Amino acid sequence: MAKYFDIDDILTEEEFVPVLFHKPANGVTIDPSAETHCVEQGAKVEVPFWLAHELHLRQAVSINLPACFNQKTRLEVQADAAYVDLRSRCQYFYEFGCKLEPLVTDRTLGILLSTAFKIRYKEALTKVYTAAHITASKYLPFLTKEETNLYEAAHLSMTAFKKWRTGGPRLQRASILGRKRKDSN
Amino acid sequence: MAGQTDPHISLFSPQEVEFMAEDELVKIVPNMNMDPLNFISGDFGRFVPQIPTEVPLWLAVALKRRGKCTFRPPEWMTVDNLTQILEAERESQSTFQALPFSYVEIARLLFDHARDDIPDMYMVRSLVEDIRDVRLHKLETNLGSFQGTSAVKISNVSAMEVNLVRPFVRRALEAFYKHDKPEADVDRDTRSSRQQREANNEPRRPLRQR
């Protein structure tokens, strides 16, 4: 319930998954190209995850793996996980995979996620502290939202430390007192 | 991981860590007479000229700014000691040398205010900076060696270094934990062996050995 209002969680659940309907559904316009407003039994449709989850609980559909977890991605991850552009596949790659894991029959999803994350962590994210901005920014466009969070956290604390190190007035007026300053602490 | 949209999650800013470091006791040599001072944190004794006394760092800095004392540098801040520590840091790749918990902050405050009280000031300063760089580098390379633990112990890390890596390591460990949990249910046999790093300095992290 803590994640009900969380923007990232909402956006994660917005991702499409292909589902296979077990029961016909009447009066719904899921497939915009269909003529009749109903879905046949055995039809394959793409629905958002939140919908697929609900339908799965009522045993009306079975969920297949979406395209971002397909064989092509797996092969790429095996080859060189650090450079795989996960952001264009799915911005919430890890989070989405974790949600799908209990619903899908494929057992290797969790392993794929954790190996991908571990390798990417080791290669890209640990370089944040030492590397010059150029080397780190090679990986930046490829990171998913969650990894970008990690990166930003590290980057912020490093800049704060450097700023402190170069000195500054020991006592500073609080920024909420209205004085105009460029960098408020 | 998805629940943390706030990047400003570092729990202490460097200024706050410095503030907490100012409680450390240092030796000063006052040059005036003053009665004992009574504070909430304790009483600091009679100030007699030329008799060294121990006071907290914040009080020492305040007295120094009013020109009422001179600092006596702490024992660990001599050129020999620092050179030795630097050598030892450079040698070993995974252990940190024992240094006072807030050495970075104490060193910086002393350099800012007590420049003339420390013999060989420039030498000491460059040594402290070198030590800091080496330790930071070591810390970062060791960060990359997590294999999926959910608790990490590293000994002799100082306050400022811990504060630097704190948000990053916290989130990374959470992510590792999240990804390993479903894996642990599915596939116990093929789980890769997990490395562990020993000895912790941070009261906040649970020390669960996996």
UniProtKB/TrEMBL annotation, chain A:
Alphabetized InterPro entries for the sequence: GINS_A (IPR021151), GINS_bundle-like_dom_sf (IPR036224), GINS_Psf3 (IPR010492), GINS_Psf3_sf (IPR038437), PSF3_N (IPR055221)
Localisation per UniProt entry: Nucleus
Cellular component aspect of the GO annotation: nucleus
Keyword Nucleus part of the UniProt annotation: yes
Residue stretches spanning the membrane: none
GINS subunit domain boundaries: 69-164
Alphabetical GO biological process terms: DNA replication
Broad class of the protein's primary localization: nucleus
Keyword Nucleus attributed: yes
Annotated DNA replication complex GINS protein PSF3 N-terminal domain residues: 5-55
Gene3D superfamilies found in the cross-reference section: 1.20.58.2050
Keywords: DNA replication, Nucleus
PANTHER family in UniProt: DNA REPLICATION COMPLEX GINS PROTEIN PSF3
Family (UniProt): Belongs to the GINS3/PSF3 family.
Protein name in UniProt: GINS subunit domain-containing protein
Source organism of this protein record: Cardamine amara subsp. amara
Organism lineage string: Eukaryota, Viridiplantae, Streptophyta, Embryophyta, Tracheophyta
UniProtKB/TrEMBL annotation, chain B:
Subcellular location: Nucleus
CDD domains named in the record: GINS_A_psf2 (cd11712), GINS_B_Psf2 (cd21694)
Domain named DNA replication complex GINS protein PSF2 N-terminal: residues: 13-70
Keyword check for Coiled coil: no
Record GO biological process: DNA replication
Family to which this protein belongs: Belongs to the GINS2/PSF2 family.
Cellular component terms per the entry's GO annotation: nuclear chromosome
Residue ranges of the region described as Disordered: 180-210
Keywords (A to Z) from UniProt: DNA replication, Nucleus
Quaternary structure and interacting proteins, as annotated: Component of the GINS complex.
Residue ranges constituting the GINS subunit domain according to the UniProt record: 76-174
A Pfam match: Sld5
Protein name: DNA replication complex GINS protein PSF2
Gene3D superfamilies found in the cross-reference section: 1.20.58.1020, 3.40.5.50
